[in-house]
Design goal:
The structure holds two protein chains of two kinds. Chain A is mainly alpha-helical. Chain A is 77% helix and 2% strand. Chain A starts with 7 loop residues before the first helix and ends with a helix. The chains are: A mainly alpha, B mainly alpha. At the A-B interface, helix 1 of A face helix 4 of B.
């Protein structure tokens, strides 16, 4: 049973999407199947995580072909953690979308595609083969194209064209990079690549390949010069879709960067400096962008970019403390960003607009919900002891140890800007006096929803807020996980040994 | 496009192309071919029929909506993949083979069912796309 445990999250999502496709027209069934399936998925992911936590890295050989020839799936602590986080966000968004996405969209296969997206995410986190990683990226972007265009409003199509173009470009660069790497080494297995790339004498060519990977994943992760597609497209689809995009899609790019630059291209000072410069500029540009926006979801979109900077900065510093900070930030960010986009969806349902200027009086009308909204907002800023605070400590300590003062400065500056932005949002949306807005006809306001739909919208927010609070107050546990992940990532021999076995590595050295 | 030549030819071409697609599907294990190409050829058969006879006739011939083939095909491919996990405790997608050779088909294995699933998905997707475009044009 446990031998194949690594694959269970994948198989479950695949199974769910097939079952949902059979119930194509029965939306009420789809809602139930999706939520129940997501709950089971959380259970399976917890099982996988605890198994990996106790027994270390596990691998599965797909089709029983031995590495480095066959495709393998590897679950180390990082992969298992991310699969668990995907399951948690997936459950929240599944419940939220069954209440907030309109039936016209659900009728055209929203739920099957949503689970295909989760399948792609899980696959990308678990695969140990770089070409297979590309295939999972394709599954992710094809599903996300459908989700972002479903409904076909004008603004949506405009946003999706930008999203589509840049993501296809990223995929093409990624594929080119794989081709060059395959030409250099003759292998696609990531552990095998790690050994073979280290042995290549033409370091210039290796650096160029690394840059190709950096650009491809940089577009996906939305880092500094390559982020323009994100704020233009994330505010157009329904907020449930934006929640899963904002929470997880850019983080796959970050995951791929972390994996490739800790396993395959290690210890290249030139690349590390480039990553650091990109990180600092990302922190500045994302923060400043968020400051001037008026649409709530655009503000959150720019904050995604800003906070990608933290994770990339940790990767660029490349010490164990810094990587631990990156992983902690990743854990915190996935939960909080998913929650924030759901909050923006809730506010949209309450008032019929997301324009900060026109919003207001939320505290007077919904005092308890306002307090709920406060948790993700202030976790994002990182007011101690909430969850955003702890990873920044690790990052700043790592910056001091490496004597990179400008990185420390940028991290502190970005935190300050985040604080200003969130304070502005809080004051304008929650505390400011209510403005009289024109009543929209045929619009399903929050107050008019049935109780069960209200519960389906609020429950995932409470759930994610509790997880956020746990990350903040139980920071010791999360720090343990991040330190262990950082230890595994810094010492890539562990990963290679788990995949290839000891004998093959010795063969290779001879 | 309703010329008498095409209409007459299409009645013969439909079964011929379908048989050819099955042939391509079966030879795909070691030689060029397989579920994807086979599925494309099968959908060409139906598309040609719809050009010659009109979309409504083709839909009548198909009986079910082609979109329905997608989950069936996916389910078949999925089952071919998980059978070794569930019953033989082997890794996902391991090829299981029936020991004896069968006439016509040759060796029978789980890979054939996977390819058959791909075949059905490709037919379903292609026909759904083409029918939708034809209807809205």
């Amino acid at each position: 049973m446990t031998q194949q445990l690594v694959l269970y999250p994948l198989l479950l999502q695949m199974f769910l999407s097939i079952v949902l496709m059979f119930c194509w027209r029965k939306i009420s069934w789809q809602r139930v199947i999706s939520i129940v399936g997501s709950i089971i998925n959380v259970g399976v992911s917890i099982w996988l995580f605890s198994y990996i936590w106790e027994n270390g890295t596990q691998i599965v050989l797909a089709g029983n072909w031995k590495p480095p020839f066959g495709i393998i799936f590897v679950a180390d602590t990082l992969s298992a953690t991310l699969v668990l986080l995907t399951a948690i966000s997936g459950l929240a968004v599944s419940s939220f979308s069954s209440a907030s996405v309109v039936a016209a969209r659900l009728k055209f296969g929203y739920f099957p595609i949503f689970h295909f997206l989760l399948l792609g995410l899980n696959g990308a986190f678990l695969t140990g083969d770089i070409f297979n990683l590309y295939v999972w990226f394709e599954i992710i972007i094809i599903s996300s194209f459908v989700l972002i265009t479903l409904g076909g409003e004008k603004a949506q199509l405009e946003g999706s064209v930008k999203y589509f173009t840049l993501n296809i470009l990223a995929s093409m660069i990624f594929l080119t990079a794989i081709a060059v790497l395959y030409g250099l080494t003759g292998s696609l297995n990531m552990a095998d690549l790690a050994l073979k790339v280290a042995a290549i004498e033409n370091r210039g060519l290796v650096s160029i390949t690394a840059i190709l990977f950096l650009v491809a994943f940089g577009i996906k992760a939305a880092v500094f010069p390559l982020y323009f597609w994100l704020p233009d497209s994330y505010h157009t689809p329904p907020s449930a879709v934006a929640a899963i995009f904002g929470g997880l899609l850019t983080k796959v790019g970050v995951y791929a960067l972390i994996r490739v630059f800790t396993l395959i291209f290690v210890g290249d000072q030139f690349i590390e400096n480039i990553i650091l410069i990109m990180a600092v500029l990302t922190l500045f540009s994302g923060g400043l962008g968020a400051l001037v926006q008026n649409n709530l979801r655009k503000v959150f979109s720019y904050l995604i970019i800003c906070h990608i900077g933290y994770m990339i900065a940790g990767l660029g510093l490349f010490t164990e403390v810094a990587i631990a900070g990156t992983i902690f930030y990743l854990i915190h960010d996935i939960i909080v960003k998913t929650n924030l986009f759901m909050v923006s969806g809730l506010i949209f349902r309450m008032r019929g607009t997301n324009s900060i200027r026109n919003l207001g009086g939320l505290y007077a009308d919904y005092p308890k919900l306002s307090l709920l909204i406060a948790i993700p907002l202030f976790s994002l800023v990182g007011i101690p002891p909430l969850s955003g605070f702890w990873p920044k400590i690790s990052l700043i300590i790592a910056g001091f140890q490496a004597e990179r003062w400008w990185v420390v400065g940028a991290i502190i500056f970005a935190s300050l800007i985040t604080l200003i932005v969130i304070a502005k949002v809080w004051a304008n949306v929650v505390w400011k006096e209510k403005k009289e807005l024109p009543v929209r006809l045929n619009f399903r306001y929050f107050d008019k929803l049935k109780t069960i739909r209200k519960a389906q919208m609020i429950a995932p927010m409470i759930f994610l807020s509790l997880v956020s609070l746990y990350i903040g107050f139980g920071a010791e546990h999360i720090q343990q996980v991040s330190s262990r992940v950082a230890g595994e990532l810094m010492d890539n021999q562990q990963y290679i040994e788990a995949v290839l076995g000891k004998e093959q590595i010795i063969d290779h050295e001879e | 496009m309703k010329t008498i030549i095409l209409r007459t030819a299409s009645t013969y071409l439909l079964p011929l192309l379908l048989m050819f697609s099955i042939f391509i599907l079966l030879r795909g294990h070691y030689s060029p071919g397989g579920g994807f190409v086979g599925g494309l050829i099968a959908s060409i058969a139906f598309v040609l029929h719809s050009f010659a006879r009109g979309l409504d006739n083709t839909k009548e011939l198909l009986k079910i909506h082609p979109g329905f083939l997608m989950p069936i095909g996916l389910a078949l491919a999925f089952l071919a993949g998980v059978t070794p996990v569930l019953f033989f405790d082997l890794p996902f997608m391991t090829g299981l083979w029936y020991p004896d050779h069968l006439p016509v088909i040759g060796s029978l294995g789980s890979a054939l069912f996977f390819d058959l699933g791909v075949y059905l998905v490709v037919v379903g997707v292609t026909l759904t796309i083409i029918f939708t475009i034809t209807e809205s044009a």
